[in-house]
């Protein structure tokens, strides 16, 4: 049985990837390695915890000794690396935490894989899941392609850019078989409510202000998380060695338009008077170094691997909102405790 290591599988995207791999590939033994930081939650993958091909390991990728030990016990044939510090606002507060996990953590995994696979790279694959934010900001025109120069502006994107570079360098220098993807903003179930869509759904439910940065004209390309998981599955199995693929939703929205759309849908769902939730919109001081626009050209993965989003934005949002409305307990649990302190510091 092939042993596959997935890091960060208790987080938002990782939980969808782990679920897909465990359910779809009974012939793989899946090892989910996660430190269970504030963003990691075993509730996100409760439905698969008893499957015979699923294994959870609690551990920190920054701990080099632990990672080396793990690789000496298990002969992993593939690594899908998603564990990361992932929130831009937090990276502005504490950049070093992002260097530790995103750069040093990735290095530890690269070194362990290189050491384990040194005699035989056949059938091995190191897959780094990354972000479109490494490309910096677009103006009103154009799209990010795989050859767009890296130009990161936040400590988060700088740390992801750095880890991308190390993955490539290990491919070029040591021949490590890798694939890399840079994806646009994801949305869907199990998304920690510090990020825009779940934050606003939660605040609308609770009649709390909707904090919109600057003038609300920042533009993002949104992709349903299950479509990202499908793309990751495809790239892991069929992507060309030493290649990068951009993944995106062909779905650009200005933040303010997206917030208004969420307000409209939520008014209907909650049986509120039309326009009621929009009254909660509050413009707050802009984030420093805020990128104006991200938009992905996903034509390479479309042409080479036949991937395109399987759900429309309307359908994805409908499923997402319904999920949060049906899982208020999950929302309550993740927004208790330290979340409250973070929220107060960020938005008051
Ligand atoms: P997330 O913050 O929801 O989850 C990250 C997971 O990594 C958590 O379970 C956390 O416990 C774990 N983790 C953090 N530090 C760790 C450490 N030192 N050791 C082991 N585990 C650790 O993040 P996400 O939104 O699911 O993103 C997953 C990956 O996808 C990240 O690499 C991110 O850069 C990338 N990405 C995210 C998006 C997006 O829109 N969310 C878009 C493109 C790429």
UniProtKB/TrEMBL annotation:
Domain NAD(P)-binding: residue ranges: 5-320
Class of this enzyme: lyase
Entries under CDD domains matching the protein: dTDP_GD_SDR_e
Molecular functions (GO terms): dTDP-glucose 4,6-dehydratase activity
This protein's UniProt keywords: Lyase, NAD
Gene3D superfamilies: NAD(P)-binding Rossmann-like Domain, UDP-galactose 4-epimerase, domain 1
InterPro entries to which the protein is assigned, alphabetical: dTDP_Gluc_deHydtase, NAD(P)-bd_dom, NAD(P)-bd_dom_sf
Enzyme Commission designation: 4.2.1.46
Alphabetized SUPFAM superfamilies for the sequence: NAD(P)-binding Rossmann-fold domains (SSF51735)
UniProt entry tagged with the keyword Metal-binding: no
Cofactor entry: NAD(+)
Catalysed reactions, as listed in the record: dTDP-alpha-D-glucose = dTDP-4-dehydro-6-deoxy-alpha-D-glucose + H2O
Family: Belongs to the NAD(P)-dependent epimerase/dehydratase family. dTDP-glucose dehydratase subfamily.
Annotated protein name in UniProt: dTDP-glucose 4,6-dehydratase
Gene encoding the protein: rfbB
């Amino acid at each position: 049985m092939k042993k596959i290591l997935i890091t960060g599988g208790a987080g938002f995207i990782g939980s969808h990837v782990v679920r897909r791999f465990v359910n779809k590939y009974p012939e793989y033994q899946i090892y989910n390695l996660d430190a269970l930081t504030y963003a990691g939650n075993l509730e996100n993958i409760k439905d698969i915890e008893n499957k015979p091909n699923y294994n959870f390991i609690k551990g920190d990728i920054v701990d080099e000794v632990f990672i080396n030990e793990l690789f000496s016990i298990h002969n992993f044939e593939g690594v899908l690396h998603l564990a990361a510090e992932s929130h831009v606002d937090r990276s502005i507060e504490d950049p070093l935490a992002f260097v530790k996990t995103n750069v040093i953590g990735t290095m530890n995994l690269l070194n362990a894989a290189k050491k384990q696979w040194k005699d035989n790279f056949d059938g091995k694959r190191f897959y780094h899941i990354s972000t479109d934010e490494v490309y910096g900001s677009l103006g009103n025109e154009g799209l990010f392609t795989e050859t767009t120069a890296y130009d990161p502006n936040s400590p988060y994107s700088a740390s992801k850019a750095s880890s991308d570079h190390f993955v490539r360098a290990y491919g070029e220098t040591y021949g490590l078989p890798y694939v890399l993807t840079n994806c646009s903003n994801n949305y869907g179930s199990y998304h920690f409510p510090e990020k825009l869509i779940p934050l606003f759904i939660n605040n609308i439910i609770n009649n709390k202000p909707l904090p919109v940065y600057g003038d609300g004209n920042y533009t993002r390309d949104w992709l349903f998380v299950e479509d990202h998981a499908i793309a990751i599955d495809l790239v892991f199995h069929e992507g060309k060695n030493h290649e990068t693929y951009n993944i995106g939703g062909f779905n650009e929205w200005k933040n303010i338009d997206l917030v208004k759309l969420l307000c409209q849908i939520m008014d209907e769902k909650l049986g509120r008077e039309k326009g009621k939730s929009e009254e909660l919109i509050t413009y707050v001081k802009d984030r420093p170094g805020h990128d104006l626009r991200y938009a992905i050209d996903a034509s390479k993965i479309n042409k080479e691997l036949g991937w395109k989003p399987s759900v429309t934005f309307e359908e994805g949002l409908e499923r997402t909102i319904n999920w949060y409305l049906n899982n208020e307990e999950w929302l309550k649990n993740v927004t208790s405790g330290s979340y409250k302190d973070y929220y107060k510091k960020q938005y008051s």
